[in-house]
Amino acid sequence: MYASREDIGYDFGDDSKVGNKPVKPNPNIDGGWAWMIVLSSFLVHILIMGSQMALGILNMEWLEEFNQSRGLTAWVSSLSMGITLIVGPFIGLFISMCGCRKTAIIGGILNALGWILSAYASNVHYLFLTFGVTAGIGSGMVYLPAVVMVGQYFQKRRALAQGLSTTGTGFGAFLMTALLKYLCTEFGWRNAMFIQGAISLNLCVCGALMRPLSPKDVSEKYVVRNNSEDDNQAKALSHSAETIKSNGVLSEEPEKKEEAINEEMLDSVQHIEIGSKSRSGKNMHGLRILKTVSQLTVTVRKGFAIWYSSYFGAASLFTNRVFVAFIIWALFAYSSFVIPFIHLPEIVKQYNLSRQNNIFPLTSIIAIVHIFGKVILGIISDLPCISTWNVFLMANFTLVTCILTLPLMQTYVSLAVVCALIGFSSGYFSLMPVVTEDLVGIKHLANAYGIIICANGISALFGPPFAGWIYDITHKYDFSFYISGLLYMVGVVFLFIQPCIQKKQPREKSTEEAQV
């Protein structure tokens, strides 16, 4: 059903035929500094995704403070979650121009600023701007580099590395729920947000740890990669790969021409600088400024060219039909996972289960099991006899089933069991970067994964407010879970059948060629 990009030769311009050449791999790939990258990404997931999963605590405080409807108040947390992901494609542009490290550091400052400014909110609409937009954009500028860097530094243990780093979401949801609950009780929600803003400045430290690999190291990563997928599965996406190659997807010729023009520009500036050494110091200072501006212009032009060709060029990522199916799935998936975190505290109140939930919160059950789910699914996916795609699909089907059955549970024990299954099956989030990388390659992972999380962001943006509006009308969350679950099911089914269609098309084509 699914094949990795190595098997189908889907390399977006990379020379996958050089695998027979002996190349000494970089010691930092799959080891060394790679584990510091995992640590950095782990902390990013704690501070960003974990905090967002704990927003149910602040949501209840905002309801009491501003006396607004649940639907309107839910937009604050939805904007923060949604914008974090929706800005993915634009953050891909920043990464192409500035690199992951600088993008993450700037994002950390912006995220902390959003939390601190939100402490002075006078109404819900103020929170839309400070917490939803400002903190959300900052979170997106840190989150995408954290995922991309792990993909760059790992080759053989990609799924495990992504699983370990993304377990920070589970740890963060558990820790931040307890922390925000304590801070709101002791200091009030305004001081709690101010303190959380100070804590978020540690995102700048995480960004500083994201030491970039050289282009040579990135190419060596694929030279030494071994083919681990079954040859029969490779035929499933071969037609898609051939179509993309025939269209010249993201070919390197325009990039080489662009680089030649850029080098000529810099050489001309350098010649002027050398010829002007005998001039006054003031003129030399002006030439240095000119050289810096020229280098910045070259960087911006090169980054924008890569970003534009990935999204809007004649040979864009959208020519891959399985990748398009992946995007459609992402449009429905994330809201089904976010809705329980946002509205579980209200469901507990509705069924008079507050006493049991105070002992062991249901959101904490999801968070703890979510940790094990990511690691276990990552280990399973890295096994040579297991298809990452099949593990990804099975986890999605399990999560859909849990979302549809959750409203039927009215006791704490039954809700706890369903929440545990939700936590484990949602561990497939650690496989999303791996699946995306297999489809497009590491060179275009930032742009492609930016599209995927953008679709997830749209889902997260409209899901919780929709559940809030349904509650305002019916005073029950049942229909919210049913509708979001059914939409999620449509996305999963579409993702399931598209590779089958891709597998059928090359067979029909080969039959026609044989007849001719």
UniProtKB/TrEMBL annotation:
GO molecular function, one term: monocarboxylic acid transmembrane transporter activity
Protein species of origin: Steatornis caripensis
Transmembrane segments: 33-55, 75-96, 103-121, 127-148, 160-180, 192-210, 322-344, 359-377, 389-409, 415-436, 448-467, 479-497
Gene3D superfamilies per record: MFS general substrate transporter like domains
PANTHER family per the UniProt record, alphabetical: MONOCARBOXYLATE TRANSPORTER, MONOCARBOXYLATE TRANSPORTER 14
Gene: Slc16a14
GO cellular component: membrane
Key words of the record: Membrane, Transmembrane, Transmembrane helix
Pfam family, one: MFS_1
Lineage top rank: taxon: Eukaryota
Cellular location(s): Membrane
Name of this chain's protein: MOT14 protein
Start and end residues of each Major facilitator superfamily (MFS) profile domain: 37-503
UniProt membrane topology term: Multi-pass membrane protein
